[in-house]
Amino acid sequence: MSISQVSINIHISARSRGQKEQEAVQKRTFTKWINSHLAKCQPPLVVTDLFEDIKDGVILLALLEVLSGQSLPCEQGKKLRRIHWVANIGTALNFLEGRKSAYRGSPIKLVNINSTDIVDGRPSIVLGLVWTIILYFQIEELTSSLPALSGSSSSMDSSNSSTDTTSPPVKRKLLPPAQGGARKALLRWVQHTATKHLGIEVKDFGPSWRTGMAFFAVIHALRPSLVDLDRIQRRPNRDNLREAFSLAETKLGIPQLLDPEDVDVDKPDEKSIMTYVAQFLKHHPDRMQSESDSQTEEERERRKGLREMKMWLDQLDRDVTQARDTETNLTQQYQSFKRLRVQLEVRSRQVEAALQSSQKDGMLTVDQALVKQTWGRVSNRLLDWHLQLDRSLPAPLGQVGVWLHRAEEALRQDIPPAPQAHEQTTGTVHRALEQHKVSTVPPLMNTRSALRSFQKIHQDRCVEGVPVPPEQLQDLAERINFVSTSSNVHLAKMEFVENQHQIQAFLILAESKLKSWIIKYGHRESVEKMLLNYVTFVEKQHLFENYEALFQSLKRSAEQYVAVDASVEEGECGVRRFLREVVGQWRSLSVEVRSVRSMLEEVLSNWERYGSTVASLQAWLEDAEAALSQPENTKREFFRNLQLMMEQHAAMNDAGNFLIETCDESVSLGLKQQLLLLNGRWRDLFLHVKHYAHAEELEAWRRDHLKAMSALRELLDSAEGKLNAPVPLAFSPVRSFLQDVEKIVSMETQFKLVSRSAQLLAKDAPPDEGARVMAAMATAKGQLSKVRERCPPLVRECHGLLPLLEEMEKHTAAFHLSLERAGLLAPSFPFPQDLLTEQQSCKRSLSVIERNFHALQRALSTSKVLHNVDQTLLKKRTAEIQASVGEWRRQDGAGGCLRRRFEESRLELERVLGAAQDCLAEPGAPGDPEEVLRRHNDFFSQLDQRVLSVFLKACDELTDILPEAEQQELQETVRRLHKHWKDVQAEVPSHLVRLKVEVEQRRVALVLQDCRLELSREMEALSGTCTSERVVKEHRVRTGPLASCEKWLRVMEELCQQVPDNDPAHRSLGAAAGDLAAVTDEIENTRLKLLQHPDKWREWNDRFCELSDWLSSQRRQVRSLRETAGDGSPTRQEQEAVDEREETLCWLKRRLAALSEVSPELEVQRERAALAKLSTDLRALLSSLCQSEELREEVRGALEEVHRVRREAQEHYGRVLEAETLGEARQLYLIHQVRFPFPHLQNCFHR
Predict the structure, then answer these.
(1) Which residue intervals are annotated with compositional bias (Low complexity) in the record (predicted)?
(2) Backbone dihedral angles phi then psi of residue 869, each to the nearest 5 degrees
């Protein structure tokens, strides 16, 4: 096991141990707390073992009655069954769930607590239930009435400081629930009222209390005179704890719920300490006063707020009425409506909080009822006004508005109120569900055309030219969107709620039926009716099948509900949680329902048994009372069946007592009176006839004793004879003797039976008969003691002899069998291997026989009890074995030695030849051929003539002693083995050559396999993202590996010349040559495919086409320029484009040079010719561009000259116009005609 596993195990065991210690502390504390309250019962009750005493529910109900002051129904009695226990626990749990928490105001939640777990006494569940009771009835009740605590002063300061009387009293407020719950409230009380002024820090209800100082601080806060803080600070923790608990109990009357040993630990139990500390709240001086003051002040503030809210709602109602009656247009009306509705919605949360009932019965006060009524009136008035405004819209908007109101009304319908019965709720929800389907789905389908029209209207903001208020139109769009999105959610919710109430109604009905079946029962007829009712309700109406159908329907609706609204899956009221609660409730309920039938049948059985026994006993009592006056013989004959009547009397009382415990009071009273009367008559009669009850029994005892005594005497006589009879020393006789002795030991049982019958007989028989019986028993006991003293050593020593005898007899039989087989095999030739085996078996068996014989001799010579063992048979068998051994040894002699030597040498030679033959016959090895070649070389190099020489020498020696008839067969064996040896020697060279050929073939195959893998990889790369050019460049297949393969093939050819033409080595050579040729062809084909692959020309073709298209476009521009000869000089962009195209041409030339290495020559030549033509066209274009540049320069100069002349003409024209006289103007005009002979300039001048 690893260190991490060890640490995990240690951690788990530590947690388990800590949890058990915590449960033990809580059990002790909770038990003391319960006993402190049960002491108020009449009579007082005490809990000794919490987990056991709480099972029947009686203690739990008594505790709740003391804490609540209410009376609860309880099933009581000495013979309560589990069904009654569950009923009591169920009553207690239902009572708790009906109470409201002082902090939350909601019912108490019992999480994972059900009746069956409490009845089973599960520690964690029982402790959880008791803690819930303590938290609600003690801690929450006491902390909810605490005054609010500020950071600067405490309630204790205000109570102690009485000097400052001029300042007004400060109002105290109760601790609000939102400040952390009961635990934090209790901790704040301890911190503010006790420990803060003493310098003691209390941060929790755990380690902060270990020293005991916190307990003293709480006591000091309540009674300062009881505590000397200076003295207690220097003492051990447990002394402080012990004194603090004692002071609280004796001076304050607070029961000691804790032990010092439970608090003085590293992690004290918080729940136990909270339970104890909360008791000090009862002695808080300001608790009751602050509670009443705070309640009065809060009530006054609450009523004032409600009145103000009522006034505001009335004013809002008047504003709604006034705005609705005002004569304005639709837009103003809608704006007024929306403003007032926003005011109402802003105050909605405040109104809902104000309408929360603060009373335990959930009723509203008068002010709350008025506010609720006014709120409903204003809401309805706004809703009617909204409907009127929507209807006032031009068609088809009015139809859409009316449908929206119906749909929104259906969506506003919520779950019916809780006080309603689940059956009625189910019907209400079903009707609401149908109304929802009618109000939302069909109208939506019928108004699709209206909705399409609405979409167009929403875009146009008008209906046939009539404007629509944009704000109202936008609200309609949002409402339509809300209805369409919320309809499925609401439908799924209503379906889930319907199934929810159906299964709740089903469970309530089942629980009510269960409660009607586990009551105190009546007479037999009523129980039969109850059983018939059970069968009808459970079996005929298929209770369990109906639940399964309802639950599956609920589960489906829950899944649909969660699918459309995931937020409802978990939480306080989550769907999953409700399903778990239903499953848990049904699990406990179904168990109890199934147990009802057995209980009812048991009650009926007891009624039947009680009725039959009462009837027969009454009749017999009348006859017995009359028989008392009869003669003795008659009475003895009559009362012979008294024992049977005693059994019936006991059965009657058992059945009657059971019925008294399980039936109601009226029936129980009648049964008690009847039993009292019958038992009285029985008791009076039995006093006179009780001696007759044993007469029949005494006679039976006498017969049984005589029979048992006779059997015991026979056993004793037989045992004496068997112990003294002689026993032959062999396995079967000794085993039979041991079995007889063990049977003698079993006589102890028979003696006990006789002794018991003798005691019964001597007790009630006459004295002289009793004395004779006891004397006979004493004699039998003495005889049995003598026999019993001899048996144990006999059994022990016989058990020691049996293994030796069994082994000796087994080896004796094996010795004779082996000796017989050896005698049959010895004269034959060839010498069988079994002969040597049989001889060895004889030796082993003989050794075991001799060893066991000596062991038996020693055991018998030292034994003190085996005097009757006869050794004659054993000695006789041993002598026979020794005679057989002597004869066998004489026959074996010197010839046996030569035979063994020859046989051993023959076996060794055959082994060597067999190994060589296996090597020669071994097919192509699946492993490494080089390893096989090395191994075979080693083997055949060690194969020499010594094995054959030893065999031939042994053969010559054996031939001298064999008869003439057997020598021929021996020579035949020698010739056969010698020929086999020569054949092997001749085959070895060819075999080694074949192995060498296989080695070379393996090398060629590996290289060719690598080549094929490389080719496959290149083809896969080509089919992927890699280009063929890259694959060609990365081509790894070179002539080097192929040259090596050719070299190895030449080696194979040289080796094959050493073997015949039909040898398999030639086939291996041909196969390797064929594989090499195939791979060479594959390499060449792959290279051609790579060279011919078109992807490497893709980029070259793209850029080539791009340059060609550019040349075409430039040629068109040059022609256009020549035709128009317009103004425009080459720009810098054009010059850069030309430079870029020259770079492209250079790239194409370089790329073509690179591609020529990895492409076919014909394709390279074709592309090179195309590139040359493209280069020629580019140079021609550049030349044309240069000529165009010169033309542009000439045109540009001419245009500049024209512009200059035109400006001078305009200036001269201005001087002509500005001439003072006509002559001067004419003279200037003539000068103008001479300087500007251009016709178009003169026309301009004339104009």
Answers:
(1) 150-169
(2) -85, 130
